[in-house]
């Protein structure tokens, strides 16, 4: 029996499977693989599938070599990024849409076109990287009603992609979002 407080991490093969889909994992197995990030306990992962099946799903992923328990994961090197490597919350550059004579203490806000472009690009990129499993992260982007909320959401999504699929995917996501923001200046 797996302890609900156990923490699992993806192996190199697990990260590769998320990107390639070569094994054709069934939906619930793929969902648990994507959500396995080296910080979430098995108990928390159980909330995303039928709770009674979580042990079977984690065991199958472990047997396939796609995840490893936290106690065995040190040799593989996967896990959350050290705090020093995380991007700052102001990682998106936007063009001000305010008049030059506006007060200096006003925050620079992106134009409506930039917000729309960032939203569309972020959502389409998430669907490209995660397929049908992008729902939770896309809803985080779609709920943003201000530029500050969008900046925070984009950085949270990027960090999740870094943990779940590797830093190169997180960087591709961020580059696409930045390109959308800069392309609508």
Question: How would you characterize the overall build of this protein?
Answer:
The structure is a single chain. The protein is mainly alpha-helical and 185 residues long. The chain folds into 2 domains: 8-75; 83-183, no CATH class. The chain is 51% helix and 3% strand. The protein contains 8 helices and 2 strands; from the N terminus they run E-H-H-H-H-E-H-H-H-H. The protein has helices spanning 12-20, 27-35, 42-45, 54-63, 112-130, 135-142, 147-165, 167-183; strands at 8-10, 67-69. A two-stranded antiparallel ribbon has the order 1-2. Helix 2 packs across helix 4 and helix 5 packs antiparallel against helix 6. The radius of gyration is 19 Å and the shape is elongated. The N and C termini lie far apart (56 Å). Mean pLDDT is 78; it is low at 73-87 and 97-107.
């Amino acid at each position: 029996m797996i302890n609900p407080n156990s923490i699992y991490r993806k192996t190199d093969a697990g990260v590769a499977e998320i990107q390639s889909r070569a094994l054709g994992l069934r939906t619930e197995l793929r969902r648990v693989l994507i959500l396995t990030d080296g910080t979430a306990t098995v108990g928390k992962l159980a909330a995303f599938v039928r709770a009674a099946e979580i042990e079977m799903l984690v065991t199958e992923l472990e047997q396939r070599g796609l995840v490893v328990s936290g106690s065995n994961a040190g040799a593989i090197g996967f896990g959350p990024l050290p705090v020093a490597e995380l991007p700052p919350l102001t990682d998106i550059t936007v063009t001000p849409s305010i008049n030059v004579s506006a007060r200096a203490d006003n925050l620079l806000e992106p134009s409506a076109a930039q917000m729309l472009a960032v939203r569309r690009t972020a959502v389409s990129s998430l669907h490209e990287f995660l397929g049908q499993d992008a729902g939770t992260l896309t809803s985080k982007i779609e709920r943003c009603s201000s530029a500050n909320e969008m900046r925070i959401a984009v950085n949270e999504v990027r960090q999740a992609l870094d943990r779940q699929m590797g830093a190169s995917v997180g960087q591709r996501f961020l580059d696409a979002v930045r390109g959308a923001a800069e392309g609508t200046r």
